[in-house]
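Side project, low priority. Logging it here so it doesn't get lost.
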Amino acid sequence: MSEEVSDKPQILVVDDSKVIRRAAFKMLADDYQVHEAVDGMDGWQQLQQNDAISVVFSDMQMPQMSGMELLANIRNSDNERLAALPVIMITGVGDTEVAKRTVFDAGATDFIAKPFESIDLISRAKSYASLNRKVVELEKKTVHDKLTGLLSVAGFEEQGEKAFSFALRHNLPISAVYLEITGFQDMYLAQGKSVAQQIIMAVGKRLKEVMRTEDIAARLGVAKYAVLLPLTNDVNTGLVINRIRESINELVFNTGQEKIRVSLAAGYTSPDVTERLLFTDMMEQAESALQKALACSSGENTCSFFERQGADELEPAFTDEDMRLAFQYILDGTYFQVPDNMLQAVTEKLVHFLDYVADRSDTERTGTDYS
């Protein structure tokens, strides 16, 4: 499989026969970037890792995972792009018309029979790659997520850019929050697509209910959401996250066998808008904070991007000898020799001493000891 960056449309050929894969590669390689998979399991893993694949050619009979099972995985995927992917089944001589009809009813886009001619393979690749590209382009222009009614990635970027520019121009606070349902993949595997979609929709609905008119909420991924909070500083962002969680915690999903509650991990950033940041920079900060929150054991952990930075840039620890030397510089009148990175630590020590002096002065003046 080629790892070279290419502008060519990408096609996946799934077949346990190396001869078939090589034949398809030779026919398509001039105009397409061709990926090969040895069975359905291999093909499914590649599809999950590569969003650029626009057409799948798959044999029906394979070990590990058959073409039928691969097709079912694709059509039942919660990833809308993947679920709509064109899948052309490669049928063998022994495949009956009933088998072909069954696979077609399961969602196959088209069929091609072995041994296939170059013109048949190329024509289907061209037609369905073009169709898939048009679908992807239309989805990118869609500003609302179909499942939740929240903004899509495209809509969020469009409105977010405007809100961020306004905050930057008028030196107003603004915060971004990324939220993700924890353990969603396990939940999906255990409960199925129907329950998973109910959860996604319910969380989206609650987000819309708790947001202010000026707030901007979106669904960015399968179980991932974003909220942009104009006129909101760091402290108030924490309050908003708590309000969101209180609303989400009220949700109970009854599957008939058990009751499910969901929890959210949250990462947020409240950048200094006087800095010449881009909207994309702020989103990257929120994503970074969310990843740290997801890495924690607590299901409802909240992380700030700037708390993370603080953890990465801790002040160095000073020894007693360092502090004694610094105060010796002060006593000697050569305080300019105190290192810059020690100034805050030395000042904190002096503040306690000055507070003590002030207290003693008050005691001597009034004759009253409050200790």
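Brief comment: The domain at 10-141 is CATH 3.40.50.2300 (Rossmann fold).
Revisit when time allows.
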